[in-house]
Amino acid sequence: MRTGAFNGGRLEKARIYNGYTIKELAEKIECSRQTISAYENGKESNPDFSIITRLSEFLGFPVQFFYEHSLDYKVGSTYFRAQLTTKGRYRKQQVEKMALISAVYSFIGKYINFPKFEPLCCVESKTPEELAEALRVHWKLGDKPIDDIVFVAESKGIIVTKFTSETSTIDACSQMVDIGGDNVFLIGYSDNKQSAARIHFDVAHELGHILMHEFGEDVNCLTKEEFREREMEAHAFAAAFLLPQNSFYRDIINLPFTVPHYTQLKRKWKTSIAAMARRTHGLGVVSYDEYQNMMRILQRRGLRKDEPLDDELTTSSPKLLRSAIQILLNENVFTPREFIDEMSYNHNLTLTSDKIEELLALPKGTLHLEPQTHKLRLLK
Could you tell me the pTM of the whole model? Predict the structure, then answer.
């Protein structure tokens, strides 16, 4: 089914989603670079359908996807950890993936009441430490260790997702999307992270950006100094949020500052030894020289990248969108085919079942379409 004109913007999104330049994509499907450029820029109103078919098959997006109007939402800035060392193409790839997740979220939200994110007031007048304390009060977390930060963030209206990437330089990112006047925040973290300690710090770091920084401006226009300052603020927030000053201080004030003792502390707080050591210095319990010595010990023992307990301490995967899909299917609101058709016909977003499963980290086969059922529907 094709209705309307070809939408070059959709082709650009599909290309970026897959991580290709115009030149690379043209070579892959054996057409000219000028052709792809003309299609994306709207200079060719009646593109060769055989080329569109090849693009569809290679990029993994249905033909119909390229003939739909652009969705009515506005993507704000995206903050990336390690932004200064990550190539632009990888950042753009994750932006498109998170934007598509937002679009699917918007559709599901017509049937499921998701929790709404409630921002804190007067954040400009607070330090990262004060904001971390205020958020714990606002979310009724007390001053105990956070056992599952993914669950906490999702329960407070933030979309959390895992992403795959061709590069190891992206640890996590956060993004704001304006959907119908509502600001929806997303946090993505790399699926090469398995340890709860690293995931917890990444998610807390992105929470810091969401609370403290402006998502309506172009982050790429910031100077290196401005970006580093925001990263330092997000780091300070994450440390204070995960390791509250009073309760963490009570744990460390009489504790020997050694790797074995902080390994046991890590089991309780689900935060890395390196982050706890830095927090211990920040709270004035150890000197800068003692902190640096701890870092050197970790380095010599090969523990800066892979710490003790990293393979033991785990946290849950994102469940908000996955659970919403399961509810819709289990309550017979939709069959898998009806879900995909409804999103296409009434939400202007045609995706394959594989693509939706990939975006939402659904178990493979969740939206499996029976070949015979699919065929009968096509005959209609």
Answer: 0.89
